[in-house]
Specification:
CATH class of the largest domain: Alpha Beta
Radius of gyration: 19 Å
Helix content: 40-55%
Bound molecules: NADPH dihydro-nicotinamide-adenine-dinucleotide phosphate
Strand content: 15-25%
CATH topology of the largest domain: Rossmann fold
Order of helices and strands: HEHEHEHHHEHEHEEEEHEH
Distance between the termini: 36 Å
Number of helices: 10
Shape: globular
Structural class: alpha/beta
Number of domains: 2
Strand order of the largest sheet: 5-4-6-7-10
Length: about 290
């Protein structure tokens, strides 16, 4: 499953819609990114998001603060972005330096500008099946699966990982009754696994679709996959051999019916779905 190609396809769709919206409303959607400190990986992520904004006709602001920034200073910047009428989406690049209370900072973002869908109000709306914004990585996974013809409805999906960013919201999207792509891309029977799960290999072998979000290189081995299953690899692990996923791609790709590579799988979709949410935020704030 070629995430790069699907990401390009969705970006073209968003660009066309943004162009029409801007022409009709006179509003250019705008994403404000906040980067604290000088983590090189975070800088790359923010740069990629900035480039994606340019490609789809979304304006972007970059607020780069030194690692010595205090929590109060950061909260004061967020307050001004919350109020700025020309800013529609706010992105706080994680991780924040130690000493800053990440949850307090994320909770301070105006829920109507919370394009990462991390705010408890937005998480609550997702869990009730009436989302305002969809979390970017899980929504990207759903887009990949549906655009590759994988029907989820009635299938057994096993998600390995229960983080607030990937595993948990992924389970909410797949168990929902409907999705942005229609009911066939949701309505799965979902098992969510974590470090205390017993008989993990056995549980995974019962899956029609496995979604790995563990953060351990080559964690999902061929013995854990039913022949013909669909495998989505969310993991991004830096190793001596470069970036690798959570799935042993060489072996698992021999038996899976479809599989995402790393890099070039889920990663590009995460950025694209952020564009999707920023455009949604602009529509929401202008309506
Ligand atoms: P977290 O570290 O927050 O969560 C990892 C999850 O894996 C936890 O729920 C943990 O269980 C579970 N886990 C760890 N070890 C085991 C084990 N031995 N058996 C079963 N479960 C285990 O990671 P994230 O969810 O934030 O990220 C996961 C991966 O996805 C990372 O590689 C990250 O870089 C990548 N990622 C990629 C994105 C993309 O755009 N492609 C976006 C976001 C993340 P427990 O809760 O019990 O500790």
């Amino acid at each position: 499953m070629d995430g790069k190609a699907i990401s390009k396809e969705i970006q073209a769709e968003i660009a066309a819609e943004v162009a029409t919206f801007t022409k009709q409303s006179g509003i250019t959607p705008c994403l404000a990114a906040v980067l604290v400190g000088d983590d090189p990986a975070s800088e790359v992520y923010v740069r990629n998001k900035h480039r994606a904004c340019e490609r789809v006709g979304i304006a972007s602001q970059m607020h780069k603060l030194p690692a010595s920034t205090t929590e109060e200073e950061l909260l004061s910047l967020i307050d001004s972005l919350n109020q700025a009428s020309d800013v529609h989406g706010i992105l706080i690049q994680l991780p924040l330096p130690s000493g800053i209370d990440t949850l307090r900072v994320l909770d301070a973002v105006n829920p109507r500008k919370d394009v990462d869908a991390f705010h408890p109000e937005n998480v609550g709306l997702i869990s009730q099946g009436r989302p305002r914004f969809l979390p970017c990585t899980p929504h990207g996974v759903q887009q990949i699966l549906d655009r590759c013809g994988v029907e989820l409805s009635g299938k057994h999906a096993v998600i390995v990982g229960r983080s607030d960013i990937v595993g948990k919201p992924m389970s909410m999207l797949l168990t929902a009754k409907d999705s942005t792509r229609g009911p066939q891309a949701a309505n799965a029977t979902v098992t969510i696994c974590h470090s205390r799960t017993r008989n993990l290999a056995e549980v995974c072998r019962s899956a029609d679709v496995i979604i790995a979000a563990v953060g351990i290189a080559n964690f999902v081995t061929v013995e854990m996959v039913k022949p013909g299953a669909v495998v989505v690899d969310v993991g991004i692990n830096r190793t001596d051999e470069g970036l690798v996923g959570d799935v042993d791609f060489a072996a698992v790709s021999q038996i899976a019916s479809q599989i995402t590579p790393v890099p070039g799988g889920v990663g590009p979709l995460t950025v694209t779905m952020l564009m999707y949410n920023t455009f949604d935020a602009a529509k929401l704030l202008s309506s």
